[in-house]
Amino acid sequence: xxxxxxxxxxxxxxxxxxxxxxxxxxxxxxxxxxxxxxxxxxxxxxxxxxxxxxxxxxxxxxxxxxxxxxxxxxxxxxxxxxxxxxxxxxxxxxxxxxxxxxxxxxxxxxxxxxxxxxxxxxxxxxxxxxxxxxxxxxxxxxxxxxxxxxxxxxxxxxxxxxxxxxxxxxxxxxxxxxxxxxxxxxxxxxxxxxx
Length: 195
Known about the structure:
Blueprint: H1 2-28, H2 35-42, H3 46-49, H4 56-77, H5 89-115, H6 117-143, H7 152-169, H8 174-190
Helix pairs in contact: 1-2, 4-5, 4-6, 5-6, 5-7, 5-8, 6-7, 7-8
C-alpha cells in the first residue's frame, strides 16, 4: 500500500510540475523561465524537479509528447467517413485544435530550438513524425491523380506553415477560421473544382 501511495504521490508531483511549467512558460516565455520558477509555481521543493526530469528541455519534450497523444485522441473521435472525401479537413482540424490547446508548449519548443541545436534536431524529428499522416494522405491523393503543388512532403510543410500563421492571426470564431483555412488548403491542393 505504501508503494502505491508513493507512486501516486510521485505521479501527482510530475503532473503538478508539468502544469506549473505551462503556466510559467505562458507568463515568462520558455527561455526566461527557470526551474525554480516551475517548482515555485507547483508549490514544490526545487529538488523535486530532478526526481522527474534532468533538465527543463527534458520536461518540455515530455509536454511535446502529450501533444502527440492528444492528436491521437482527436483523430480517434473524428468521423472516419470524413477521411473518405478529397479534403485535408481531418488533418487541418487536428492541427487547429492542437495549436489552440497547446500553443504555450509549441511556442516553447520553437524558443528552445532557437538556442540549442541538439534540441532543434529533436523538435524537427518530432514535427516530421507529426506530419507523417499528412504526407501519407497527400501521397494517396497524388497516386489517385491529384496534381499537388509540390511533393507530398513539401506540400505538407507548406500547409502546416500557412495553417499555423493563419491560426495565430485569426481573431474571429474558431469554427469560421477552421472553415476558411480548410477551404484555402483544399483549393490549393485540389484546385478550384473542389469548391
